[in-house]
Amino acid sequence: MTNTRELIVIGLAFVCALILMGLPTSYKTSIAERCQAGLAASGQALFSRVIRSTRDEEKSRFLLTQNVALALDNMQLQEAGWENMRLRKALSFRPLDGGTPVISAEVIGRDPDHIYDAIVINVGRDHGVDKDMPVVTPEGLVGHIAQVGRSDSVVQLLMRTRVSALIQATRAQGIVSWIDGQFRLRFVESSNLVREGDLVVSSGLGGRYPKGVPIGTVVEVNQEKRAPVFLRVILKSIVDFSVLEEVFVLGKD
Predict the structure, then answer these.
(1) Which residues have CB under 8 Å from 144's CB, separation 6+?
(2) Using alpha carbons only, what angle is made at residue 203 by residues 122 and 152, rounded to the nearest 5 degrees?
(3) Which of 10, 167, 181, 224 has its Cβ near the most Cβ atoms within 10 Å?
(4) Which comes out higher in pLDDT, residue 60 or 234?
(5) Phi and psi at residue 206, in whole multiples of 5°?
(6) Residue of 136, 131, 168, 138 whose CA lies nearest to 153
(7) What is the per-residue pLDDT across 175-201, written as a single tens digit (0 to 9) for each?
(8) C-alpha distances in angstroms, 237 versus 60, 183, 199, 204, 241?
(9) Distances in Å between the alpha carbon of 241 and those of 54, 110, 196, 224?
(10) 90 backbone dihedrals φ, ψ, rounded to 5°
(11) CB 173 within 8 A of CB 165
């Protein structure tokens, strides 16, 4: 069957060749020119489609690049706006007594696995920083200087220390500690009036932290089960320790 088809095709080709050979030269030339023109037109159309496709691809790539660049510019402008707000707040910061030297610093390091332990700041002994100096933000208390280098220092955060504190409204005193992932004002006698929303500030006792620096607000008050003579006071920190970027070291008078 296959051989028969091949013979038919060969025969038809032979007949076409004989017909073409028998045609006048002018007809042969006309047919050749038409074939050539058809091939040229097809090639030109194909080439044009390739060129258009390439140009469209380049245009799409250019537009995508422009969109990415605009998005990056927008993000940088937003970040600059937030930084401007933080710096304005920092510039307006004044210590409570008005006479304490203030050393501004930027957070340059922290352990991502222990973000509530310590931070590293970009000021040290050469800037007048000394061990145990308190560290604050315009919002409230951060911690104290634990280690001092020439140009940087390690700040131990409040979660790893205890602070003598008092409730600003009633003057009831206690100790702020970090217990089970939350701040608590401990050893507040149950006879004291403590309400949700009360502001807790440092008392100044012990000498490490100045008096009156905000620490947190009361979010829950209960009776201590193991020691009913005391209240169980839970605080919400004034400072968001997870996003610290700029802090202030309070120097010595």
Answers:
(1) 132, 133, 134, 135, 155, 156, 161, 208, 209
(2) 10
(3) 167
(4) 234
(5) 95, -25
(6) 131
(7) 999 999 999 999 999 999 999 999 999
(8) 50, 7, 10, 18, 9
(9) 53, 11, 22, 27
(10) -65, -40
(11) yes
Residue 33: alpha-carbon gap to chain centroid: 69
Asked if pLDDT for residue 229 goes beyond 70, the answer is yes
Which region among 76-80, 162-166, 178-182 has the lowest average model confidence (pLDDT)? 76-80
Rounded CA-CA distance 71/76 in Å is 9
Query: Which has the higher per-residue pLDDT, 23 or 232?
Result: 232
Cβ distance 244 to 140 under 8 Å?
no
Three-class DSSP labels, the chain? CHHHHHHHHHHHHHHHHHHHHHCCHHHHHHHHHHHHHHHHHHHHHHHHHHHHHHHHHHHHHHHHHHHHHHHHHHHHHHHHHHHHHHHHHHHCCCCCCCCCCEEEEEEEEECCCCCCCEEEECCCHHHCCCCCCEEECCCCEEEEEEEECCCCEEEEEHHHCCEEEEECCCCCEEEEEEECCEEEEEEEECCCCCCCCCEEEECCCCCCCCCCCEEEEEEEEEECCCCCCEEEEEEEECCCHHHCCEEEEECCC
- Burial pattern 77-108, b for ≥16 Cβ within 10 A else e, equals eeeeeeeeeeeeebeeeebeeeeeeebbbebe
Q: Where does the pLDDT of residue 26 fall: very low under 50, low under 70, confident under 90, or very high at 90 and above? A: low
- Are the beta carbons of 131 and 162 closer than 8 angstroms? no
